[in-house]
Amino acid sequence: MIDLSEIKQKLSFPQDVVILSHRNPDGDAIGSSLGFAGFLRKMGHNVKVVLPSDYPLIFSFMKGIDDIIIFDHDRAKALDIIKQATVIACLDFNGLDRIDKIGPTVEESTAYKILIDHHLDPEPFADFIYSKTSASSTCELVFTLIEEMNGVNKLDLYDAENLFVGILTDTGTFKYSTNEDTYRVASELKKRGVDDYYLNDAIYNSYTEKQLKLLGHCLANRMEVIPEHKAAIIAITKQDFQDFTIERGDTESVVNYMLMIKGIEVAAFIREQPTIVKLSLRSKGDISVQEIARNHFNGGGHKNASGGSAYAKLEDVVTRFKSILPKYIK
Ligand code: 5GP
Ligand code: MN
Fold first, then answer.
1. Distance separating alpha carbons of residues 27 and 62, to the nearest angstrom
2. According to CATH, where is 3.90.1640.10 located in the chain?
């Protein structure tokens, strides 16, 4: 385990803590932020959570989510809080470009900076770095850090639920990215009262009719399967966004469905946005979509789950993706 003496000393008296996570926050970004916030508050700190952009509605049930400050909605307040913070905790992201316009304010701040993350290639911008790419989720790491600080007894049911959410969502309900600690931590959280059936139901049985129809449209009309490269692509246009009034979170899990086809090992979900084309990439086994995202689409993430973007036409991004496939699919 890493040296905890400095972080323990910093957290031994009340601090103004701001917890930050990445744009387009997922269950792990939100869960780890809220769970860590709950722990730090019970240690006597004044804690605020700031996210660059809003969260998907399916996570609305999470305790404490209403108190999160969204930079896109209230820029001045968000930046003010970060400027005043004496401790800045960066959770579930590996570089300041992942928090967009908040990045420079964090960089300029003289606050004590904590980074807890499981993405590849973490940037060394923090004073205390707890980065483990073999961890299922940042939530798993937040829990093991709290354990190392002998603080597990400070976690209440809601903190435990919030941490469980990140493990659940980042492992696709314990289907991938798991290790021994994942199950151990999940067990510890369940001991604290977590009802995993309730959380699964709240998160995964929460589609709206529109979202399910959109999924149907993507699979029936927008999917291209390329068996020779073990790949499948779904590309959606600005028009699709209009036709289905697609909002944040509506397309969250579309990319995963392609990997349900036998023999398909890499999946790309490509969407045309007002000024940019965004990609969500997923793979199985040894194929690294992180390398594809990093080398070709100005992105990154994990070996089997990455994202990126391009300033180009949708068709050109699809063509570029297809043309690089042979290099990465052995
Ligand atoms: P998603 O496809 O669900 O948006 O993201 C999958 C993973 O890739 C997440 O871990 C996310 O943090 C990371 N990711 C998504 N988009 C980007 C990006 O533009 N840049 C980097 N560095 N990582 C990204
Ligand atoms: Mn994560």
1. 10
2. 5-204
Ligand 2 centroid vs 228 CA: distance in angstroms? Answer: 31
Helix-then-strand count for the chain, H and E: 13, 12
Domain 5-204 has CATH 3.90.1640.10: yes
| Atom 11 (ligand 1) nearest CA | 301
* Ligand 1 atom nearest residue 24's Cα: 4
Instruction: Say which residue the tokens 């790309």 belong to.
Output: 268
Question: pLDDT digits over 2-28, tens only?
Answer: 899 999 999 999 999 999 999 999 999
Tell me, using a 6 A CB cutoff, whether residue 308 lines ligand 1: yes
- pLDDT per position as a tens digit, 119-152: 999 999 999 999 999 999 999 999 999 999 999 9
- Ligand 2 centroid–CA 92 distance in Å is 5
Of residues 144, 32, 44, the one with CA closest to residue 89: 32
Distance 103 CA to ligand 2 centre (A): 19
- The response to whether residue 52 sits with its C-beta less than 6 Å from ligand 1 reads no
> CATH 3.10.310.30 residue ranges in the chain?
209-328
* Domain 209-328 classification at class level: alpha beta
How far is ligand 1, taken at its centre, from the CA of residue 141, in Å?
Answer: 19
CB 203 within 8 A of CB 240: no
